[in-house]
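Example record

The entry below shows one chain as it appears in the dataset: sequence first, then structure tokens.
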Amino acid sequence: MKTVCLIAEFLFLCSATSSAQQQELPDSSAMAPLESRLDEYVARLETESVQTKIGEVDFLIGSSTRPEVRDFIARKLYLHYFTSRLMGDEAVAIHITDEWFGSGKASMGSEFDLMNARVFATYNRQSLIGCRAPALALEAADGSYVELFNEGAALDRPAVLYFYDTDCSKCRIETMLLVNMLQDDNWAIDFHAIYTGEDMDKWVEYRKSRLTVEDGEKVRVHHLWDPGNVSGMAVKYGVLQTPRLLLVGKDGRIAGRNLDTPALRTLLEGICSEYEYGSDAADGFYDTVFSGFGPLSTDEEIASITSYIRQKTLEKGDSTGFKHMSGDLLFWMSRQRGPGWKKASGKLLDEAVFGMSELWTEPNDSLQVLGFAEVLKDLYSRAAEGSRLPAVKVNGKKLKRLKNHVILMVTDGCGICEGELAALESYLHESGRESLIINMDSLLRDDPDTAGLLFDSFDLTALPYITTTNRRGRVDGRYLTLLRD
């Protein structure tokens, strides 16, 4: 998100600040314009991904050759992302510690500040957004041991980790809010209530009097603790104080951290609610994305968009986002006309659905996406390019024997069909082909058996349907249009 004028002015200010320091101007007067531009710059980055922010931070810090200016920029950016209320921004602060302060390329100012930055990084780096949830071995209320998030273990539902202490006043408030939320919403989740203290009596009393969440129709409740402090949960999940609330997605990755109950509810609504694929909103989104793509768009053009979706979701650990965007795209693409769209839709089926069956495991996936994908796969396989037309006789002609033909299947009262028929004569003159026009309404009325054979042999989910054969009688085009732009 580098705007040319902002970058140019920023670099100019770095240079000017260096000159001012060489002239021994006071720090406040030298740094104030630069600090203002830094504030503006990071504000423009607010909605960008963490990886983009990290790239921009490295650019900003490395933009000055003067150590004093570089140190100022690094400290300013560290403080911004360390104190940011945006979930995930702490990863940027940790990157600055590792890349700039820890390496000695920039100075934190004092050994005490550097030590604090390193402690923060140590206690947070394992539980950053997108990281695989660290394994935990904890003791359950009945004395048995429970192992959470073992490497490679699949989750059948999202998991909430709630670290609390019985003597923590903030925990009492958060506990009450959580209990109310879980009882009201009954999410299909595993709720791990993890006591961070070591007093068994207090723990038992707290569960009875405050943390009275029972297994529901969907929610599963697990009361856990670590009296010997051997699990390493403090380092693994940053449990330096309580309450601490995190969400782990079904993919085993951290989906939310530093949460409160309202924020957790918002995330669960997105993760646990059944997603409606192919909605009007999704259609409108893809209408905008693909505006300007015509019916003859190449599958390579369309593939560039699908590749970008993968890059922005799946490659960053967001399998849910990938499924939602790919599923919506599949529904939208299936309604587009033209060979480019159909070919690209077939590739999307193979690559994003059937080629990634391990992602589509939710009941809602089977109901909405996988079943639809199987139907599309069957439809796209009918009368494929390179094959012969079926041995069906229509209007006195056997389709299997048609060579160098264009076959139009149309319906009454269809404006597009009328346009294709009007363009037919010119097309025949230019191509040298012969034609066969099949009115499906008339055929259904006069010869329903033959009409049924055609519906079984071609993808007639949308009319007109136009296909062509070459001089060897093989299909060499389908989902065509005779209309010109």
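Notes for this example: The CA atoms of residues 409 and 438 lie 5 Å apart. The chain is about 50% helix and 10% strand.
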